[in-house]
Amino acid sequence: MSPVAMAFFRHLRQGVNRAGLPERKPLYSRAMTPFLKMHGLGNDFVVFDARNRTLSLTPERARAIADRRLGIGCDQVIVIVPASNGADAAMRIYNADGGEVESCGNAARCVVRLLIDESGKRKAQLETDGGLLSGIDTGGVISIDMGVPQFDWRAIPMANEVDTNAFSIEALASDAAAVSVGNPHCVLFVENAARAPVQVLGRAIEKHALFPERTNVEFVQVLSPDQLEMRVWERGVGQTRACGTGACAAMVAAHRRGLCGTRATVQLEGGSLTIEWAGGDAHIFMTGPTALSFRGEIDLEALS
């Protein structure tokens, strides 16, 4: 046997397991944090469960996770934490830019889906900075009570008093509406949603001085009294395939103007949501699908 072969077999004998095979050190041994990748109509999320563990998530780490080339990739990072008001859980929401926001309808459906599957019940309550949300399983899809919409310019908020049912944004939009669905929305009614300049106008209106906390922007085409088509620019994210609170805002704004009834299907690039609102102080109900894409683990410390 050659000296090289003898050295090789000596190396193997130095570390073998009970089966007589060479022992291999793990490629990576640092503690990992589990996550779920979920989406609602293509509006996608990385979801962490921090109800029984400490999760060190900073805006910088949220941005790194959301990066579609260097991270996992998502529109929002979601953290499930213990509730403080008797709800089943609370949800914290980080946009792709790392900023924490009040509400996200598609994410709420995903988290309620997880809570319902975990408990075996048909209902779950979810605490958010935008308000308490209640969800129910309605035959495989999740329906969320999104609460009462707010139309007062101070509640949205806006920088100065306007008629939130119809106002102009200088040099950008001549006919806009505004509403809060736990977070701010600016709704633009357009003749053709597919051709609307979402990238250009969305970016400009999101950061317009009229919206001191920035805003989501919806481009809405009324197809019929119960059918709306919508494209959306999300605050802190950019153009997304769907937005649950945006669909609620679109239907509510259309109903206020008499353009749709109390129930409408909102067609988004990623699919459709059913929105119901009877007007006035009635609650908005949003119904749609959720999906689990995959499970994984991540080293959060490596993102520092």
Task: Explain what this protein looks like in three dimensions.
- The protein is α+β, with helices and mostly antiparallel strands.
- The protein has 2 domains: 127 residues, Diaminopimelate Epimerase, Chain A, domain 1; 133 residues, Roll (Diaminopimelate Epimerase, Chain A, domain 1), CATH 3.10.310.
- Helix content is 19%, strand content 37%.
- The protein contains 5 helices and 18 strands.
- The chain has an 18-stranded mixed beta sheet that branches.
- The longest helix is centred in the middle third of the chain and has 15 residues.
- The radius of gyration is 24 Å and the shape is globular.
- 41% of the residues are buried.
State the end-to-end distance.
50 Å
**What percent of the residues sit in helical stretches (DSSP H or I)?**
10-25%
| Cα Rg | 24 Å
**Net shape:** globular
Give a short summary of the structure.
With 304 residues, the protein is an alpha+beta fold. The chain is 19% helix and 37% strand.
Keywords:
304 residues, alpha+beta, Diaminopimelate Epimerase, Chain A, domain 1, 2 domains, 18-stranded mixed beta sheet, 5 helices
What's the structural blueprint in terms of helices and strands?
Layout: H1 3-14, E1 33-40, E2 43-49, H2 59-66, E3 76-81, E4 89-95, E5 100-101, H3 105-119, E6 123-128, E7 131-137, E8 142-147, E9 167-169, E10 173-180, E11 184-189, H4 198-206, E12 216-224, E13 227-234, E14 238-240, H5 244-256, E15 263-268, E16 271-276, E17 284-288, E18 291-298
Parallel strand pairs: 2-3, 4-6, 11-12, 13-15
Antiparallel strand pairs: 1-2, 1-18, 3-4, 4-5, 6-7, 7-8, 8-17, 9-10, 10-11, 12-13, 13-14, 15-16, 16-17
